[in-house]
Amino acid sequence: MRILIALTYYRPHVSGLTIYAQRLAQGLAQRGHTVTVLTSRFNPTLPVREREMDGVEIVRVPVAASVSKGVIMPLFPFYAATFIRRHDVVNAHMPQFEAALLAGLGRTMRRGVVLTYQCDLSMPPGWLNRVVETSLAPLNEAAARLAHSIVVTTADYAEHSPFLTRHQAKLAVIPTLINTPVPEPARSEQLARRWGLEGAVTIGFAARFAAEKGVEYLLEALPRVAREVPNVRIAFTGAYKYTVGEQAYLKHLEPLIAAQRERLVFLDLLSDDEMANFFSVCDVLAVTSLNSTESFGLVQVESMLCGTPVVATDLPGVREAVRRTGMGLIVAPRDPAALADALVRVIRERAQFQRPRAAIIAEFNLDAALEQYEQVFAQSRLSA
Question: Which pTM value belongs to this model?
Answer without folding.
Answer: 0.91
